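To: structure subgroup
Subject: Chain for Friday's discussion

All,

I'm putting the inputs and outputs inline so they're searchable in the archive.
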Amino acid sequence: MNNFSFKILATDNKARTGEIFTPRGIIRTPAFMPVGTAATVKAMYPEQVRQTGADVLLGNTYHLMLRPGAERVERLGGLHQFMDWKYPILTDSGGFQVMSLANLRKLDENGVTFRSHIDGVKHELTPERSIDIQIKLDSDIIMQLDECIKLPAPIEEIERAMQLSLRWAERSKTAFNNAKGRGQPKGQQGRALFGIVQGGDDAGLRAASAKGLVDIGFDGYSIGGLAVGEPQEVMFRVLDETVPQLPFDKPHYLMGVGKPDDILGGIERGIDMFDCVHPTRAGRHGRVYTRFGSINLKNSRHKDDIRPLDETSPNENCTRFSRAYLHHLVKSQEILGAMILSQINLAYYAELTAGARAAIIEGKLEEFAATTRENWEKGDLPPL
Protein backbone atom coordinates (compact mmCIF):
# COMPACT_ATOMS: atom_id res chain seq x y z
CA MET A 1 0.00 0.00 0.00
CA ASN A 2 1.58 3.24 -1.19
CA ASN A 3 -0.94 5.88 -0.15
CA PHE A 4 -2.02 7.37 3.15
CA SER A 5 -5.69 6.88 3.98
CA PHE A 6 -8.07 6.62 6.93
CA LYS A 7 -11.00 4.26 7.25
CA ILE A 8 -13.57 4.49 10.04
CA LEU A 9 -14.74 1.02 11.05
CA ALA A 10 -17.34 1.90 13.68
CA THR A 11 -18.67 4.79 15.74
CA ASP A 12 -20.26 4.96 19.18
CA ASN A 13 -21.72 8.37 19.94
CA LYS A 14 -18.79 10.75 19.19
CA ALA A 15 -16.12 8.05 19.50
CA ARG A 16 -14.70 6.28 16.46
CA THR A 17 -12.44 3.34 15.77
CA GLY A 18 -10.64 2.94 12.50
CA GLU A 19 -7.43 2.26 10.61
CA ILE A 20 -4.85 4.67 9.24
CA PHE A 21 -3.08 3.10 6.27
CA THR A 22 0.56 4.01 5.60
CA PRO A 23 3.22 2.33 3.45
CA ARG A 24 4.91 1.11 6.63
CA GLY A 25 1.86 -0.39 8.26
CA ILE A 26 -1.59 0.13 9.70
CA ILE A 27 -2.25 2.33 12.73
CA ARG A 28 -5.28 1.10 14.66
CA THR A 29 -7.26 3.96 16.15
CA PRO A 30 -7.79 5.19 18.79
CA ALA A 31 -4.01 4.95 19.07
CA PHE A 32 -1.48 6.02 21.66
CA MET A 33 1.92 6.90 20.19
CA PRO A 34 4.93 6.32 22.48
CA VAL A 35 7.34 9.23 22.27
CA GLY A 36 10.81 8.49 20.93
CA THR A 37 12.17 12.01 21.44
CA ALA A 38 15.77 11.43 20.35
CA ALA A 39 15.21 8.35 18.14
CA THR A 40 14.55 6.13 21.15
CA VAL A 41 11.74 5.46 23.57
CA LYS A 42 13.65 5.85 26.81
CA ALA A 43 14.61 2.61 28.59
CA MET A 44 13.01 0.44 25.88
CA TYR A 45 14.25 -1.65 22.96
CA PRO A 46 12.28 -1.02 19.75
CA GLU A 47 10.92 -4.56 19.72
CA GLN A 48 9.72 -4.17 23.31
CA VAL A 49 7.80 -1.04 22.33
CA ARG A 50 6.20 -2.93 19.45
CA GLN A 51 5.30 -5.81 21.76
CA THR A 52 3.35 -3.48 24.05
CA GLY A 53 0.94 -2.98 21.14
CA ALA A 54 2.27 0.26 19.62
CA ASP A 55 1.65 0.72 15.89
CA VAL A 56 3.43 4.08 15.54
CA LEU A 57 6.09 6.15 17.32
CA LEU A 58 6.63 9.89 17.59
CA GLY A 59 10.01 11.47 16.84
CA ASN A 60 10.97 15.00 17.82
CA THR A 61 12.12 17.37 15.10
CA TYR A 62 13.72 19.90 17.46
CA HIS A 63 15.89 17.36 19.30
CA LEU A 64 16.84 15.42 16.16
CA MET A 65 17.76 18.55 14.18
CA LEU A 66 20.16 19.52 16.97
CA ARG A 67 21.59 16.04 17.55
CA PRO A 68 22.50 14.04 15.50
CA GLY A 69 21.17 16.37 12.75
CA ALA A 70 18.60 15.75 10.03
CA GLU A 71 21.18 15.63 7.26
CA ARG A 72 23.17 12.98 9.12
CA VAL A 73 20.07 10.87 9.73
CA GLU A 74 19.24 11.14 6.01
CA ARG A 75 22.76 9.98 5.05
CA LEU A 76 22.40 7.04 7.43
CA GLY A 77 19.23 5.84 5.72
CA GLY A 78 16.48 7.72 7.53
CA LEU A 79 15.02 7.51 10.99
CA HIS A 80 13.44 4.07 10.60
CA GLN A 81 16.73 2.44 9.68
CA PHE A 82 18.69 4.57 12.16
CA MET A 83 16.63 3.39 15.15
CA ASP A 84 15.55 0.02 13.71
CA TRP A 85 11.81 0.75 13.79
CA LYS A 86 10.14 -0.62 10.65
CA TYR A 87 6.68 0.79 11.37
CA PRO A 88 5.10 4.25 10.98
CA ILE A 89 6.71 7.31 12.57
CA LEU A 90 5.05 10.67 13.17
CA THR A 91 7.32 13.66 13.69
CA ASP A 92 6.26 16.86 15.37
CA SER A 93 7.32 20.16 13.85
CA GLY A 94 9.67 21.31 16.61
CA GLY A 95 7.67 24.43 17.37
CA PHE A 96 6.62 23.48 20.89
CA GLN A 97 10.17 22.62 21.96
CA VAL A 98 11.54 25.84 20.50
CA MET A 99 9.06 27.77 22.62
CA SER A 100 9.67 25.76 25.78
CA LEU A 101 13.35 24.72 25.67
CA ALA A 102 15.42 26.94 23.42
CA ASN A 103 17.36 29.97 24.62
CA LEU A 104 17.21 33.51 23.25
CA ARG A 105 14.24 32.92 20.97
CA LYS A 106 13.19 35.47 18.40
CA LEU A 107 9.91 34.93 16.58
CA ASP A 108 8.75 36.80 13.49
CA GLU A 109 6.64 36.22 10.40
CA ASN A 110 9.34 34.16 8.73
CA GLY A 111 9.90 31.71 11.60
CA VAL A 112 11.87 31.33 14.81
CA THR A 113 15.56 31.88 15.44
CA PHE A 114 16.95 30.40 18.62
CA ARG A 115 20.04 29.12 20.34
CA SER A 116 20.33 25.41 21.09
CA HIS A 117 19.84 24.42 24.71
CA ILE A 118 22.70 21.92 24.14
CA ASP A 119 25.58 24.10 22.92
CA GLY A 120 24.21 27.58 22.29
CA VAL A 121 24.58 27.36 18.50
CA LYS A 122 22.14 29.57 16.59
CA HIS A 123 19.47 27.92 14.43
CA GLU A 124 16.51 29.05 12.36
CA LEU A 125 13.28 27.09 12.08
CA THR A 126 10.79 28.17 9.41
CA PRO A 127 7.77 26.28 8.09
CA GLU A 128 9.83 25.30 5.05
CA ARG A 129 12.83 24.16 7.09
CA SER A 130 10.61 22.14 9.45
CA ILE A 131 9.06 20.27 6.51
CA ASP A 132 12.52 19.74 4.98
CA ILE A 133 13.85 18.29 8.24
CA GLN A 134 10.90 15.94 8.64
CA ILE A 135 11.29 14.67 5.06
CA LYS A 136 15.02 14.14 5.61
CA LEU A 137 14.12 12.10 8.70
CA ASP A 138 11.81 10.07 6.39
CA SER A 139 8.75 10.64 8.56
CA ASP A 140 5.46 9.03 7.56
CA ILE A 141 3.24 11.68 9.18
CA ILE A 142 4.56 15.24 9.13
CA MET A 143 3.30 18.16 11.20
CA GLN A 144 3.05 21.80 10.14
CA LEU A 145 5.08 24.36 12.08
CA ASP A 146 2.90 26.29 14.53
CA GLU A 147 3.26 28.59 17.52
CA CYS A 148 2.08 27.05 20.77
CA ILE A 149 1.54 29.37 23.75
CA LYS A 150 0.84 28.51 27.35
CA LEU A 151 -2.54 29.07 28.93
CA PRO A 152 -3.92 31.21 30.37
CA ALA A 153 -2.97 34.03 27.98
CA PRO A 154 -4.56 37.32 26.84
CA ILE A 155 -7.07 36.82 24.03
CA GLU A 156 -5.08 39.17 21.78
CA GLU A 157 -1.97 36.99 22.18
CA ILE A 158 -3.94 33.79 21.53
CA GLU A 159 -5.41 35.26 18.34
CA ARG A 160 -2.03 36.54 17.12
CA ALA A 161 -0.44 33.09 17.56
CA MET A 162 -3.42 31.35 15.93
CA GLN A 163 -3.33 33.61 12.87
CA LEU A 164 0.44 33.20 12.54
CA SER A 165 0.03 29.40 12.79
CA LEU A 166 -2.54 29.54 9.97
CA ARG A 167 -0.15 31.45 7.74
CA TRP A 168 2.59 28.98 8.60
CA ALA A 169 0.16 26.13 7.83
CA GLU A 170 -0.26 27.41 4.29
CA ARG A 171 3.50 27.70 3.85
CA SER A 172 3.96 24.20 5.32
CA LYS A 173 1.47 22.79 2.82
CA THR A 174 3.22 24.51 -0.09
CA ALA A 175 6.62 23.24 1.05
CA PHE A 176 5.24 19.72 1.46
CA ASN A 177 3.71 19.75 -2.03
CA ASN A 178 6.86 21.17 -3.61
CA ALA A 179 8.94 18.40 -2.02
CA LYS A 180 6.96 15.56 -3.62
CA GLY A 181 9.10 12.96 -5.30
CA ARG A 182 12.43 14.14 -3.89
CA GLY A 183 15.23 11.67 -3.26
CA GLN A 184 13.70 9.21 -0.81
CA PRO A 185 12.98 5.61 -1.85
CA LYS A 186 9.23 6.24 -1.74
CA GLY A 187 9.47 9.97 -2.44
CA GLN A 188 6.49 11.74 -0.95
CA GLN A 189 4.19 8.93 -1.96
CA GLY A 190 2.36 7.74 1.12
CA ARG A 191 3.48 10.56 3.39
CA ALA A 192 0.85 12.65 5.16
CA LEU A 193 0.78 16.26 6.37
CA PHE A 194 -1.34 17.25 9.37
CA GLY A 195 -2.52 20.75 10.23
CA ILE A 196 -2.67 21.97 13.84
CA VAL A 197 -5.69 23.78 15.27
CA GLN A 198 -4.73 26.56 17.68
CA GLY A 199 -6.82 29.17 19.47
CA GLY A 200 -6.22 28.55 23.16
CA ASP A 201 -9.38 28.14 25.22
CA ASP A 202 -11.53 30.40 23.01
CA ALA A 203 -14.23 28.60 21.02
CA GLY A 204 -14.42 31.28 18.32
CA LEU A 205 -10.69 31.29 17.68
CA ARG A 206 -10.59 27.48 17.60
CA ALA A 207 -13.43 27.46 15.06
CA ALA A 208 -11.66 30.04 12.90
CA SER A 209 -8.43 28.05 13.05
CA ALA A 210 -10.21 24.81 12.10
CA LYS A 211 -11.99 26.47 9.17
CA GLY A 212 -8.75 27.98 7.90
CA LEU A 213 -6.98 24.63 8.02
CA VAL A 214 -9.85 22.82 6.30
CA ASP A 215 -9.77 25.42 3.53
CA ILE A 216 -6.05 24.74 3.03
CA GLY A 217 -6.64 20.97 3.12
CA PHE A 218 -4.67 18.43 5.16
CA ASP A 219 -4.49 14.64 5.51
CA GLY A 220 -5.31 14.89 9.21
CA TYR A 221 -6.10 17.52 11.80
CA SER A 222 -4.39 17.97 15.15
CA ILE A 223 -5.52 19.92 18.17
CA GLY A 224 -2.54 21.66 19.71
CA GLY A 225 -2.09 24.12 22.53
CA LEU A 226 -3.71 21.94 25.18
CA ALA A 227 -2.16 20.12 28.14
CA VAL A 228 -0.11 23.30 28.65
CA GLY A 229 -1.25 24.04 32.18
CA GLU A 230 -5.03 24.36 31.83
CA PRO A 231 -7.40 22.23 33.99
CA GLN A 232 -8.73 19.02 32.48
CA GLU A 233 -12.28 20.40 32.33
CA VAL A 234 -11.03 23.26 30.12
CA MET A 235 -9.32 20.79 27.80
CA PHE A 236 -12.48 18.69 27.53
CA ARG A 237 -14.60 21.79 26.87
CA VAL A 238 -12.27 22.85 24.07
CA LEU A 239 -12.49 19.35 22.57
CA ASP A 240 -16.29 19.41 22.77
CA GLU A 241 -16.27 22.71 20.87
CA THR A 242 -13.49 21.95 18.40
CA VAL A 243 -13.75 18.32 17.27
CA PRO A 244 -17.13 18.89 15.53
CA GLN A 245 -15.39 21.57 13.40
CA LEU A 246 -12.99 18.99 11.94
CA PRO A 247 -13.66 16.81 8.88
CA PHE A 248 -15.29 13.60 10.06
CA ASP A 249 -13.40 11.43 7.58
CA LYS A 250 -9.90 12.59 8.59
CA PRO A 251 -7.85 11.53 11.64
CA HIS A 252 -8.17 13.73 14.76
CA TYR A 253 -4.96 13.99 16.81
CA LEU A 254 -4.75 15.51 20.31
CA MET A 255 -1.13 16.51 20.79
CA GLY A 256 0.83 15.92 23.97
CA VAL A 257 -1.93 14.15 25.92
CA GLY A 258 -1.71 12.59 28.40
CA LYS A 259 -2.68 10.54 31.42
CA PRO A 260 -5.10 7.60 31.08
CA ASP A 261 -8.16 9.60 32.15
CA ASP A 262 -7.24 12.33 29.62
CA ILE A 263 -7.03 9.72 26.87
CA LEU A 264 -10.33 8.06 27.76
CA GLY A 265 -12.04 11.45 27.80
CA GLY A 266 -10.49 12.32 24.46
CA ILE A 267 -11.68 9.07 22.89
CA GLU A 268 -15.22 9.80 24.07
CA ARG A 269 -14.99 13.17 22.27
CA GLY A 270 -13.86 11.81 18.90
CA ILE A 271 -10.05 11.84 19.16
CA ASP A 272 -8.19 9.16 17.20
CA MET A 273 -4.51 9.73 18.10
CA PHE A 274 -2.60 10.68 21.24
CA ASP A 275 1.04 11.06 22.29
CA CYS A 276 2.75 11.94 25.54
CA VAL A 277 6.06 11.44 27.34
CA HIS A 278 4.12 10.83 30.55
CA PRO A 279 4.00 7.00 30.67
CA THR A 280 7.76 6.56 30.26
CA ARG A 281 8.66 9.60 32.36
CA ALA A 282 6.36 8.41 35.13
CA GLY A 283 7.92 4.96 34.95
CA ARG A 284 11.41 6.38 35.36
CA HIS A 285 10.21 8.15 38.51
CA GLY A 286 8.52 5.17 40.15
CA ARG A 287 4.91 5.73 39.10
CA VAL A 288 3.09 2.92 37.35
CA TYR A 289 -0.34 2.59 35.73
CA THR A 290 -2.52 -0.51 35.91
CA ARG A 291 -6.25 -1.15 36.00
CA PHE A 292 -6.02 0.03 39.63
CA GLY A 293 -4.99 3.49 38.46
CA SER A 294 -1.75 5.18 39.45
CA ILE A 295 0.57 3.47 41.95
CA ASN A 296 3.56 5.27 43.48
CA LEU A 297 6.21 2.62 44.06
CA LYS A 298 8.39 5.07 45.98
CA ASN A 299 5.91 4.76 48.83
CA SER A 300 7.27 2.75 51.77
CA ARG A 301 3.99 0.79 52.01
CA HIS A 302 5.35 -1.43 49.22
CA LYS A 303 8.72 -2.33 50.73
CA ASP A 304 7.58 -5.64 52.29
CA ASP A 305 4.76 -6.43 49.85
CA ILE A 306 5.35 -9.78 48.14
CA ARG A 307 2.33 -9.43 45.84
CA PRO A 308 2.67 -8.55 42.16
CA LEU A 309 1.27 -5.31 40.77
CA ASP A 310 -1.69 -7.07 39.18
CA GLU A 311 -1.93 -10.85 39.32
CA THR A 312 -4.62 -10.94 36.59
CA SER A 313 -2.76 -8.75 34.08
CA PRO A 314 -1.83 -10.23 30.68
CA ASN A 315 1.49 -8.37 31.01
CA GLU A 316 4.19 -10.66 32.41
CA ASN A 317 5.99 -7.77 34.11
CA CYS A 318 2.87 -7.07 36.18
CA THR A 319 2.81 -10.64 37.52
CA ARG A 320 6.50 -11.56 37.57
CA PHE A 321 7.96 -9.08 40.04
CA SER A 322 6.85 -8.32 43.57
CA ARG A 323 5.94 -4.83 44.68
CA ALA A 324 8.76 -5.05 47.21
CA TYR A 325 11.30 -5.71 44.47
CA LEU A 326 9.98 -2.92 42.25
CA HIS A 327 10.03 -0.55 45.26
CA HIS A 328 13.66 -1.55 45.87
CA LEU A 329 14.63 -0.89 42.24
CA VAL A 330 12.99 2.52 42.31
CA LYS A 331 14.54 3.56 45.62
CA SER A 332 17.95 2.31 44.45
CA GLN A 333 17.54 4.16 41.14
CA GLU A 334 18.40 0.99 39.27
CA ILE A 335 18.04 1.13 35.48
CA LEU A 336 16.02 -2.10 35.51
CA GLY A 337 13.30 -0.34 37.49
CA ALA A 338 12.90 2.31 34.78
CA MET A 339 12.85 -0.40 32.10
CA ILE A 340 10.18 -2.51 33.80
CA LEU A 341 7.90 0.36 34.78
CA SER A 342 8.17 2.06 31.37
CA GLN A 343 7.14 -1.22 29.73
CA ILE A 344 4.22 -1.69 32.12
CA ASN A 345 2.97 1.85 31.51
CA LEU A 346 3.17 1.68 27.72
CA ALA A 347 1.50 -1.74 27.77
CA TYR A 348 -1.32 -0.36 29.91
CA TYR A 349 -1.84 2.59 27.57
CA ALA A 350 -2.02 0.13 24.66
CA GLU A 351 -4.43 -2.06 26.65
CA LEU A 352 -6.64 0.96 27.36
CA THR A 353 -6.85 2.02 23.70
CA ALA A 354 -7.35 -1.58 22.53
CA GLY A 355 -10.19 -1.97 25.02
CA ALA A 356 -11.76 1.23 23.73
CA ARG A 357 -11.48 0.06 20.13
CA ALA A 358 -13.24 -3.21 20.94
CA ALA A 359 -15.93 -1.43 22.96
CA ILE A 360 -16.65 1.04 20.15
CA ILE A 361 -17.12 -1.81 17.68
CA GLU A 362 -19.59 -3.43 20.08
CA GLY A 363 -21.36 -0.13 20.80
CA LYS A 364 -20.38 -0.43 24.47
CA LEU A 365 -17.91 2.40 25.01
CA GLU A 366 -20.03 4.00 27.73
CA GLU A 367 -20.05 0.72 29.68
CA PHE A 368 -16.30 0.22 29.10
CA ALA A 369 -15.51 3.77 30.24
CA ALA A 370 -17.69 3.45 33.35
CA THR A 371 -16.06 0.15 34.39
CA THR A 372 -12.57 1.52 33.73
CA ARG A 373 -13.21 4.64 35.81
CA GLU A 374 -14.79 2.59 38.58
CA ASN A 375 -11.64 0.46 38.80
CA TRP A 376 -9.48 3.58 38.90
CA GLU A 377 -11.61 5.03 41.70
CA LYS A 378 -11.36 1.83 43.73
CA GLY A 379 -7.65 2.40 43.63
CA ASP A 380 -4.73 0.17 44.44
CA LEU A 381 -4.78 -2.97 46.57
CA PRO A 382 -4.71 -2.30 50.33
CA PRO A 383 -1.38 -2.87 52.10
CA LEU A 384 -0.66 -6.37 53.46
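Points worth raising on Friday:
The chain has two domains: 5-276, 283-378.
DSSP finds 15 helices and 16 strands in the chain.

D.
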